[in-house]
Amino acid sequence: MIGQTMINKELYKKFCDSEPIPIFSQYWWLDSVCGSDGWDVLLVVKGNDIWASMPYYKTKRGFFDIITMPTLTQNMGIYVKYPQNQKSHKKISWENEMTKKLFDKLPKFDSYLCNFHYNVSNWMELYWNNFNCTTHYTYVINDLDNLDEVYNNFDKSYRNKIANAKKKVEVKTGMNISDFFDINKMTFERQNIDIPYSLNFLEKHDYALAKNNAREIFYAVDELNNIHSALYLTWDKKSSYVHMVGEDPELRNSAAGLLLIWEAIKYTKEVLGLNIFDFEGSMLKNVEQVRRKFGATQTQYFSISKVNSKTIKFKNFFKDIVK
């Protein structure tokens, strides 16, 4: 089993290099958030070609085998490569076939949860096999060709706030990860939430992203060198992503966070040469509204789940009753 895992991972590394695999499913990303031994990958191979892949993170919670989402990972799930010139009806059949082959290889689990990338629109094979699906949303600006048009699609109040923020702060890049962690932590503390990762975890994650040239940290400072806001941007071959943000709660009124979004959008187009900007979404009402006012398109993605353990099923049922 260990030998097959090593073979699959080596094959998957080459697949990641040749295909536009989303950043959250890249082998080096998974090493950083799961540990090199904390994840595995399933492949569908025909002849000498890989046609589908599905990395997964499996952990133990007590006696239970849990497949779930790693920390700071927006999505994972399946990736399917298509034969050339495939007709639409054959495309769906192909997706179903690839999905079945992947999930047939999945090891036994008590609970499964995975957020699929929004490019995955077909989960029928899983429905037929008693998996459940919840629709979540991210917000995406899909066309950055005309930045003036993108800016004009912002809510008028946001354009005004961005203009005012430019008078109060200067935007810089290259923030130290320890300093970013400090201001990122403030955002959680303001909401009375414990930050879900440590500085040590974030340092290792940041090291992997920097090593693979897949991140930049923007921050806004005033003339007294006070840091108002920070934004951690990541990217892959197709899109950039607002990975993390942080704001000083005492300085939020400067709207520096809105300015950083605009600067990150411009950076995505002008420096990275990418055409898609993904806010990495949120189902929180107050956050969703902010994303929408940037003129971003509401984009659905699937959260796929299944529980095999009778004990976990009972616990979930009891939680639903006492809500």
TrEMBL record:
Keywords: Transferase. Coiled coil: none annotated. InterPro entries: Acyl_CoA_acyltransferase, BioF2-like_GNAT_dom. The keyword Transferase applies. The keyword Transferase applies. GO terms for molecular function: transferase activity. SUPFAM superfamilies: Acyl-CoA N-acyltransferases (Nat). Residues 158-279 form the BioF2-like acetyltransferase domain. Transmembrane segments: none annotated. This is GNAT family N-acetyltransferase.
